[in-house]
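Page 37, continued from 36.
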């Protein structure tokens, strides 16, 4: 009888381990988050990124700053991408650089920067919110024009 309870306990423990899913935060940024509720792996950490300085730069470096304006510490880092278009809206252009925003505490900021390898044109940063964020999931900086001659 005692053996049956031990086996049953081990089986239940194994099932609980399998029920704890891992998922990815932002494209290409693996981050395991342990859900706080059974069957709800998309637990929001209460972080909320926002741009505090828009895209700015010159022929050697482009940058923008994001801050965690939410009430919670980010459980994982998040992705950012730099978009480029020779003319028009950079959102319609191509990704020319990318990186990772580290897990930020509330009110902590991070400056994303990259070399404008595509040359003259319009650039814009895209950042991904934490998994489960109630907003759109992404935010964009303002566009900045770089003229290199």
């Amino acid at each position: 009888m005692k053996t049956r309870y031990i086996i049953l306990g081990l089986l239940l423990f194994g099932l609980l381990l399998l029920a704890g899913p891992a998922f990815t935060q932002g494209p290409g940024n693996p981050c395991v988050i342990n859900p706080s509720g059974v069957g709800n792996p998309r637990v929001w950490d209460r972080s909320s990124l926002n741009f505090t300085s828009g895209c700015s730069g010159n022929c050697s470096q482009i940058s923008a700053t994001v801050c965690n304006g939410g009430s919670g510490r980010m459980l994982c880092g998040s992705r950012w991408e730099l978009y480029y278009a020779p003319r028009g809206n950079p959102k319609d252009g191509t990704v020319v650089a990318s990186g990772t925003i580290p897990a930020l505490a509330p009110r902590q900021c991070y400056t994303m920067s990259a070399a404008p390898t595509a040359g003259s044109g319009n650039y814009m940063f895209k950042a991904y919110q934490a998994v489960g964020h109630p907003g759109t999931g992404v935010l964009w900086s303002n566009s900045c024009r770089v003229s290199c001659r």
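The chain has a mean pLDDT of 81. Flag for discussion at group meeting. The chain has two domains: 2-31, 49-146.
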